[in-house]
Design the sequence.
């Protein structure tokens, strides 16, 4: 029987199809373009190749073709129904994950225990937007590390596993060990954008903003601008520049590669990156132009007309608030409240608290915004996203305290962060926050 690159048996009549599917999977893992074309070639050689249908499904989802992706995942599950348990379980996990079925995560755990080297099913649990990240868990980074540690004995120096485990460890607070794994992953595959991304987080968590910005600036020019992670890596570069007080450079990077008019990434990635950067720039005293803020709100309304994933919802609130779109902000808050009541917000009430805090800050009710964020911050990890992404809420809380005249509270919050992790967000950064003038605008 044929085997894939992880040494697992594969039901296919074509060795070339298996090799093409392996290559497509590696493109997806490295967040490089070309996976869909390779999956198509594999399917042209073996139209009944269930795992290649899974790869095609994931490739379609990576470019935002959700309905087509789900159709391929469903077909994969049908084809795999008569296959051995490993492939049958693989296809079932892909189908359930892409359809958002609640038991997908439990199946990943069971599958990983039996088939620890089956990378694709395992990968659905990982990352800050994966089944664990968006599962509403306050400790999801630690859960990711525990899951990867449970299968680590089956792996050696595979670039995919090292990158996945390294980034998980960085997010869980073990940046030293995580960075070593990410660096080794990049030695094995220098084109692995996922490892580059994790390494950027390592620079952030260790407080090395200048080195992090330089690292991305060296690597990014060789990365296809149409690739899914290009805009987000540019976001990291812009954020490092902003946090060093280089606002003009940060805004130039944003406009060149992050803004909705520039990025070719998925709408969810674009919204989150743009809203978070725009809010951070505004509270640092360097807001986007009024036209840009309104354009971002229009993009949010067009692409996300109703609330959905909690992490997306809080960024919708930011986009509406920055533009003074009170009607859209009000509708969002009502929708979030309804979804909470229906039990469809995995994060629980923290999503509502953040939306309320953003609205209060935009309305210049700074003490109220700070109070709501004090409630939200302990549970912020339940929203998903990375530590660097969720830090926008700490930034907002610090700005709210400062504008409410609560300097001691602002300094305590900032000091705790720069002592524990992101040390570049230090007293000099706090001084610039104090000097900042109007941030969120209102009409």
Sequence:
């Amino acid at each position: 029987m044929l085997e894939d690159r992880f040494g697992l048996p594969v039901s296919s009549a074509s060795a070339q199809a298996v090799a093409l599917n392996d290559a497509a999977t590696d493109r997806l893992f490295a967040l490089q373009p070309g996976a869909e074309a390779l999956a198509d070639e594999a399917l042209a050689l073996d139209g009944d190749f269930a795992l290649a249908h899974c790869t095609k499904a994931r490739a379609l989802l990576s470019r935002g073709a959700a309905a087509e992706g789900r159709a391929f995942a469903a077909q994969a599950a049908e084809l795999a129904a008569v296959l051995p348990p490993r492939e049958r379980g693989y296809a079932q996990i892909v189908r359930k994950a892409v359809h958002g079925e609640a038991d997908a995560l439990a199946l990943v755990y069971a599958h990983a225990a039996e088939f620890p080297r089956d990378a694709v099913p395992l990968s659905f649990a990982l990352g800050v937007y994966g089944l664990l990240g968006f599962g509403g868990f306050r400790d999801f980074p630690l859960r990711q590390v525990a899951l990867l540690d449970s299968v680590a004995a089956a792996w050696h120096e595979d670039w995919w596993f090292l990158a996945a485990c390294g980034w998980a460890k960085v997010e869980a607070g073990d940046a030293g060990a995580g960075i070593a794994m990410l660096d080794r992953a990049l030695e094995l595959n220098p084109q692995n954008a996922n490892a580059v991304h994790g390494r950027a987080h390592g620079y952030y968590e260790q407080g090395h903003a200048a080195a992090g910005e330089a690292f991305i600036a060296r690597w990014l020019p060789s990365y296809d601008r149409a690739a899914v992670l290009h805009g987000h890596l540019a976001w990291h570069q812009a954020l490092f520049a902003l946090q060093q007080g280089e606002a003009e450079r940060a805004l130039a990077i944003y406009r060149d590669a992050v803004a909705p008019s520039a990025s070719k990434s998925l709408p969810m990635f674009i919204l989150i990156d743009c809203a978070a950067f725009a809010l951070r720039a505004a509270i640092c005293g360097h807001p986007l132009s009024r036209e840009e803020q309104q354009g971002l709100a229009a993009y949010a309304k067009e692409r996300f007309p109703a609330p959905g994933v909690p992490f997306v919802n809080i960024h919708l609130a930011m986009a509406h608030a920055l533009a003074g779109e009170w009607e859209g902000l009000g509708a969002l808050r009502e929708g979030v409240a309804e979804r909470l009541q229906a039990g469809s917000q995995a994060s629980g009430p923290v999503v509502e608290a953040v939306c309320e805090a953003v609205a209060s800050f935009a309305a210049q009710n700074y003490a109220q915004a700070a109070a709501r964020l004090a409630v939200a911050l302990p549970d912020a990890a339940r929203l998903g996203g990375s530590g660097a992404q969720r830090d926008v809420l700490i930034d907002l809380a610090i700005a709210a305290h400062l504008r409410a005249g609560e300097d001691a509270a602002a300094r305590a919050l900032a000091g705790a962060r720069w002592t524990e992790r992101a040390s570049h967000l230090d007293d000099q950064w706090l001084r610039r926050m104090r000097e900042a003038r109007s941030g969120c605008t209102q009409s």
About this structure: The longest strand covers residues 2-3.
